């Protein structure tokens, strides 16, 4: 991870982000590829899976921004969790808060996002092109109470006395779900070959489940694992 050349100022966390929409997909990956990236504090699940979520925030203290995160399905202290393998935003302020307060998002990129009553899609890319696309062609409304998401953990950056180090932090369940739909024929595609990128190293072998969720998100600082 490359630190920003200049530390961008941002409003104090937490940020309440109302009216947000999330595309969320769980999918199977190769076990060996997941284990290569899972810190020793975590245990893997069976089958090995990842969680990919893309969130559009039309309202926040820093204005509209988007975030895309790829996380490893795992367990921390025997409880379900997700550890961030890659994360991106289109906002320099969200990037700065992510790196220094919660560990993610930790890179700048391009995130395209569309969501309607019957379908949704998102694409994630950087200066070299598109990395991954998520397509949900047909949505079916469900009760929001049927869904819940585990906490997401990451390595935040700490600068002190001219040195830089990483520290594991846990973000609480920060999503208040207000409406939800599932997609039974979701797909993840990779338009360009980028074998060096974690977005493609952790490649989808099979989609497990997919949802579109309307929510209020509390974008908060991470805390120490309990």
Walkthrough of the structure:
By secondary structure, this protein is mainly β. The protein has three helices and 14 strands. Strands 1, 2, 3, 4, 5, 9, 10, 11, 12 and 14 form a ten-stranded mixed sheet that branches. Strand 7 and strand 8 form a beta hairpin. The protein starts with 14 loop residues before the first strand and ends in a 7-residue tail after the last strand.
How would you summarize this macromolecular structure in one to three sentences?
With 226 residues, this protein is mostly beta strands. The protein has three helices and 14 strands. It is 10% helix and 51% strand.
Q: In the CATH hierarchy, what is the superfamily?
A: Acetoacetate decarboxylase-like
Silhouette = globular
CATH topology: Acetoacetate decarboxylase-like
Uncertain residue ranges: none
What CATH architecture do you see?
Beta Barrel
Order of helices and strands: EHEEEEHEEEEEEEEHE
Strand portion: over 45%
Note the gap between the termini.
Answer: 26 Å
| SS elements, strand count | 14
Give the helix level as a range of percent. under 10%
The tally of helices reads 3
Query: What is the CATH class designation?
Result: Mainly Beta
Q: Number of folding domains?
A: 1
Mean pLDDT over the full residue set: 95
The radius of gyration is 17 Å
The profile of the biggest β sheet is: 10 strands, mixed
Main structural class = mainly beta
């Amino acid at each position: 991870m490359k630190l920003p050349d200049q530390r961008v100022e941002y409003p104090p966390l937490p940020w309440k982000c109302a009216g947000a929409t999330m595309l969320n997909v769980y999918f199977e990956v190769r076990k060996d590829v997941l284990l290569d990236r899972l810190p020793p504090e975590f245990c893997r699940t069976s089958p090995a899976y990842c969680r990919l979520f893309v969130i559009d925030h039309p309202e926040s203290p820093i204005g509209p921004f988007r975030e895309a995160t790829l996380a490893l399905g795992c367990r921390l202290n025997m409880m379900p969790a997700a550890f961030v393998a890659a994360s991106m935003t289109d906002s320099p302020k969200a990037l700065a808060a992510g790196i220094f307060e919660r560990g993610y998002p930790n890179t700048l990129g391009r995130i395209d996002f569309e969501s309607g009553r019957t379908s949704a899609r998102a694409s994630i890319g950087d200066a070299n092109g598109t990395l991954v696309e998520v397509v949900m062609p047909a949505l079916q409304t469900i009760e929001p109470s049927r869904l819940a998401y585990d906490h997401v953990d990451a390595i935040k950056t700490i600068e002190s006395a001219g040195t830089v180090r990483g520290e594991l932090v846990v973000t609480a369940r920060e999503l208040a779900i207000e409406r939800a739909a599932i997609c039974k024929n979701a797909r993840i595609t990779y338009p360009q070959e980028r074998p060096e990128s974690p977005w493609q190293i952790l490649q989808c072998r099979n989609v497990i489940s997919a949802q579109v969720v309307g929510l209020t998100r509390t974008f908060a600082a991470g805390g120490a694992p309990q």
